[in-house]
Amino acid sequence: MTAIEVREVSKRFRLRGPLLRRGRQPRRETVALDRVSLEIGAGEFVGLLGQNGAGKSTLVRVMTGLLVPDSGTVRVLGLDPNRDQVRNAANIGVTFGQRTQLWWDLRARDSFGILRDMYGLPEPVFVRRMRELDDVLGLSGFWDTQARHLSLGQRVRCDLAAAVLHRPLVLFLDEPTIGLDVLVRSQVRAMLADLARTGDHAIVLTTHDVDDVEALCPRIVLIDRGRPLFDGTLADLTGIGGRSGTVTVELTAGGGGPVRLPGARLLELDGVRATYALDPGVGQEEFAARLLGAGGVRSIDFEGVRLEDVLRSVYAGDHSRLGGPPAPVLPAAPAPP
Amino acid sequence: MTGAVHRLARIAPLAECMRGTRLATTGFVVVTQVLLYAELWRALYAHTAEVAGLDVRQAVSYSTLATLATTARAMRGATGESVKTRILDGSIAYWFLRPVSARRYRAWYGVGEALYSSAWVAAGLALGLVLGLVAPPASAAVAALSAVSFGLGLVVLYYLTLLIDLVAFWTVSTEGVTRFYEFVQALLSGALIPLWFLPGPLAAVVTRLPFAAGVSTPVSLYAGRIAPAGAAGPLAVQVGWCLVLAVLTAAVWRRAGRRLVVLGG
After folding, report:
1. More confident: B74 or B16
2. pLDDT value at position B134?
3. In this structure, are strands A202-206 and A170-174 parallel, antiparallel, or unpaired?
4. With an 8 Å Cβ cutoff, is B1 touching chain A?
């Protein structure tokens, strides 16, 4: 079932200079989204990646109904998120990085109570969900504190709880772990992984944190200058264009272990340590079997291609391996089990 | 889907009560202003028994109530739940991502603000009566009519403040227009100087403006400047402004939703 359907959506922003210089400066236009099409199924966890200014946040705002596209259509669970804003709001949950939806002067617990009233949650359901969220995010230690006095980590956890309190079928998370310490970050990730496991929620994660993406997102959509460059699995992205991992093999001393083997290129031989680059299409299991079959091997250490390295080269302008701009969008990845 | 939406009215009073210093500040400002204005009017009446048809007791009653109505309302704004502040901190997005429309949310929040400021007016009125600064209402009819008029005035003031606030959807900052509005409101609402001191033609115009509907009309009814028999006209003007401003703000809200700017990344 399709949860989010974005079809040929474009959005431009017209920027005007300050009043005094308006006559001298021509009006500038920025293309934030350029004919973007995207489908996200129920139960999918999608990482929406791209450089600053690539159009990620604009796309999220269009999908949440905050922005009206200049052209194209958006449907979230069959609703136009802008025209059916109130009905759509009942289906979605949203967090926007460090912007809180808690009421600043009230205790966090009061904010949850207000959201309970807005979403019409029966009290027993509200109490049960708060207990569940407390178990995962550890909220009860500070939910009697005014939002203004919460630390960043506490506030982010409260905001995440606020976003999922009504069990939305579609969740938009814009930089949910920005500025968090490792402990809180792992709590947030665990909570999101729990949600994903239910298979009920379509989740869109916008982030610059590749660890979040690698840990959570089976599918990645990469955006650049308002155009989708890539849409596929994490494995597709790290392996695209023949990118391969390296293998470090420790050989037994004087054992005369394998030096050259089919399926990999020897990069370096340093005493008993050999480093190989896997040939495209050669799997780790297959190459390990060859190594072990050759004998004289003490240990094998596979190191995959890091998403960060791939993104760095793409952001630096190397689109060649993605097909070059404007890139054809690869077929959507199947929904995770 | 939406349940106990009326409970959103508790947000503003709850937020105010969370901060003891804010309550203390509001109390201090209200009491100080009431006493200062009472002394000022007494000084003005030191050598005369009646000015513009009002004796000193009526004038001090008017001043006390007008000060209460204006100050209590102004002090509730400290909670900062406005379009302007929410646009500046970027959290305005959440107003449009909940199953209660931004317009409805702001209206219920406004009900809470009105109840909170009314509580201050009621407390101030009780204190004024005990201290002898405010004369009791001349009759039950006067009390009832001025209470109705005060309620209508709150609605008019809510819409006026909201209209100014909604400008932020277009301009982001509303400093200039807010300052201008506050200046006009103070001058033309009758909060500082009763409107009957204005020159005749000007007073005739000003008393029909929405600014007067917020303060001057209810307080004039209470102080006896407007007799119950002549209350229908001013009350009709208030109702008229409520309707006009409701239609106007509804139209602005509709356009504002499509003008939403979420500042930053």
Report:
1. B16
2. 86
3. parallel
4. yes
Structure tokens at A166: 């009504």
Angle at A151 between CA B25 and CA A107, to 5 degrees: 50
Q: What share of chain B is helix, strand, coil (3-state, %, to 5)?
A: 75, 0, 25
**pLDDT 10s digits, B155-212:** 999 999 999 999 888 887 778 888 888 888 888 888 888 888 888 888 889 889 999 9
CA A51 to chain CA centroid, nearest Å: 13
Residues of A in contact with B257 (CB under 8 A): 85
Helices (H), chain A: 56-64, 85-89, 108-119, 123-137, 152-164, 182-198, 210-216, 234-239, 284-294, 307-315
Maximal CA-CA distance, chain A: 80
Is the N-terminal amide bond of A26 cis, ω within 30° of 0? no
- Give B258 to chain A, closest Cα distance, Å: 7
* Amino acid identity at A179: G
* Structure tokens, B26: 């509001």
Q: Among all chains, which residue has been given the structure tokens 């109390």?
A: B27
Question: Contact at 8 Å (CB) between A225 and A31?
Answer: yes
Judge: A116–B89 Cβ closer than 8 Å, yes or no. Answer: no
Q: Could you give the CA distance from residue B189 to residue B129 in angstroms, rounded to a whole number?
A: 23
pLDDT tens track for A243-269: 667 888 888 877 666 677 888 888 888
Show residues of chain A in contact with B171, CB under 8 Å: none
Nearest-angstrom CA–CA distance, A47 and A218: 8
Q: Which of A278, A255, A256, A274 is nearest to A265 (CA)?
A: A278
Judge whether A116 and B5 are in contact, CB under 8 Å: no
Contacts B80 to A, Cβ<8 Å = 104
CA distance A99 to chain B (A): 6
For range A85-100, the mean pLDDT: 91
List all residues 6 or more positions away from A271 whose beta carbon is below 8 Å from its beta carbon.
Answer: none
Min distance A92 CA to chain B CA atoms (Å): 8
Torsion angle defined by CA atoms of residues A247, A253, A258 and A259, in that order, rounded to the nearest 10 degrees = 80
* Burial track B66-79 (b if 16+ CB lie within 10 A, e otherwise): bbbbbbbbbbbeeb
d(CA A116, CA B8): 11
**How far does CA B117 lie from the centroid of its chain?**
8
Closest Cα in chain A to B101? A86
Q: Are A189 and A38 in contact (CB under 8 A)?
A: no
Number of A–B residue contacts, CB under 8 Å: 95
Mutate to test the interface with B, among A99, A101, A116, A149 (most CBs of B within 10 A): A99
Long-range contacts (CB closer than 8 Å, 24 or more residues apart) made by A74-83: A74/A4, A74/A5, A74/A6, A74/A7, A74/A9, A75/A2, A75/A4, A75/A5, A76/A3, A76/A4, A76/A5, A76/A170, A77/A3, A77/A169, A77/A170, A82/B258
At residue A64, the pLDDT reads 94
CA distance B89 to chain A (A): 7
* Partner-chain contact B99 A87, CB within 8 Å: yes
- DSSP annotation of B77 reads G
